[in-house]
Automatic annotation (TrEMBL):
Its main location: secreted. It is found in: Secreted, Cell wall. The keyword Signal applies. Keywords: Cell wall, Cell wall biogenesis/degradation, Glycosidase, Hydrolase, Secreted, Signal. The keyword RNA-binding does not apply. The active site is at 241. This is Polygalacturonase. Belongs to the glycosyl hydrolase 28 family.
Length: 392
């Protein structure tokens, strides 16, 4: 197997990347614009005013959020800016209004659009999503909910040491972005919170996620169509639904996913470990050149799974087969315990069988016994010790 080169990304290098050294830095404090760290006063206008000045500056700019709790409604930080080095340093906590309806109809609580060279250092984002989760779980008519932090059509983004708490919907989303570096991110939400994916990446390239811990009610990391060149390393997931590529193939014409590496990850009590899933319907999508390496499973319901018959509620896709082509997927040094008898399940498309699956040094047990593997329309090879016995 060809080993991919580990990205040369370490914390000191991150700070070199985000601290401009050749120009004077304009320093702004949200309290200078009327922000109050009391958790009660609406500080939305203060944040927007600080961003407006930072974006209009031709010089690198730093926005500082001091200690305390800042109440903020939904905000859009709009580019394109006159400089490509805006650092937002947060020592405090950003809190959403207690009434979930206030931000619940917005796409995002904090949205960055068309920005280049934005860095967020530290801080807690507390979206107070529990009220909306309860509404959804009750079956009532509720707002769809806001993503806590989103970047769209942006590039050269750095997020370090940020904590996202109790998002209404997804915690952090990158859509249409290039060159994203994340490190030391913590995501926390209840294990039964609906649709609270930790980090979602789609239509984006060159994304690195390091040293991050995610506890949530949906996918810890979800990878959507059009994601290429992703590297995830030292990830801890649980509770949650694991790291998922997909769901893919919802649309007939869809960008593919390729060059994805998950290295040194731990899954604790999750619904899935490493998963690829696609809708059971026609599509020209694909997923290829995927590596899952050095992964520990602890009481995971579905440690290794490819599901190409995803059809929630049996709506719009019964009696169809997935058009998504899955190829060249490597599982190397995957070990630990399964919470179910079938620890490895490859349920691939009958029209486009999975190809090039490689199992290398896999050891998964169920209740101290040998687990089982299940294969449908899957082809590949195994090497080294592989337990459960490969069905490829």
């Amino acid at each position: 197997m060809t080993t991919r080169r580990r990205p040369l990304l370490f914390l000191p290098l991150l700070f070199l990347f985000i601290r401009p050294s050749f120009s004077a830095v304009l320093k702004l404090n949200v309290m200078s614009y009327g922000g109050k760290p009391d958790g009660v006063t609406d500080s939305t206008k203060a944040f927007l005013a600080a961003w407006t000045q930072a974006c209009a500056s031709a010089s690198p700019t730093s926005i500082y959020v001091p200690k305390g709790r800042f109440l903020v409604r939904s905000l859009v930080f709009q580019g394109q800016c006159k400089n490509r080095a805006i650092t937002i340093r947060i020592d405090g906590t950003l809190v959403a209004p207690a009434d979930y309806r206030i931000i619940g109809n917005a796409d995002s609580w904090f949205a960055f659009q068309d920005v280049d060279g934005v860095s967020i250092l530290g801080g807690k984002f507390d979206a107070k999503g529990a009220g909306l989760w309860a509404c959804k779980n009750s079956g009532k008519s509720c707002p769809s909910g806001a993503t806590s932090l989103s970047f769209s059509n942006s590039k050269n983004i750095v997020v370090v040491g940020l904590t996202s708490l109790n998002s209404q919907m997804f915690h952090i989303v990158f859509n249409g972005c290039q060159n994203v570096k994340m490190q030391g991110v913590i995501v926390i939400a209840s294990g039964n919170s609906p649709n609270t994916d930790g980090i979602h990446v789609q239509l984006s390239s060159d994304v690195t996620i390091l040293d991050s811990r995610i506890q949530t009610g949906d996918d810890c990391i979800s990878i959507g169509p059009g994601a290429t060149n992703l590297w995830m390393e030292k990830i801890t997931c649980g509770p949650g639904h694991g790291i998922s590529i997909g769901s893919l193939g919802k649309d007939q014409n869809e960008a593919g996913v390729q060059n994805v590496t998950v290295k040194t990850a731990t899954f604790i009590g999750t619904q899935n470990g490493v998963r690829i899933k696609s809708w059971a319907k026609p599509s020209n999508g694909f997923a290829r050149n995927i590596v899952f390496q050095h992964v520990t499973m602890s009481n995971v319901q579905n440690p290794i799974v490819i599901d190409q018959n995803y059809c929630p509620g049996n709506k719009n896709c019964p009696d169809q087969v997935s058009g998504v082509k899955i190829s060249d997927v490597t599982y190397q040094d995957i070990h630990g315990t399964s919470a179910t008898q079938v620890a490895v399940k490859f349920d691939c498309s009958s029209k486009h069988p999975c190809s090039g699956i490689r199992m290398e040094g896999v050891s998964l047990t169920f209740k101290n016994q040998v687990a089982a593997a299940s294969c449908k329309h899957a082809g590949g090879t195994s090497s080294g010790v592989v337990q459960p016995t490969s069905c490829l």
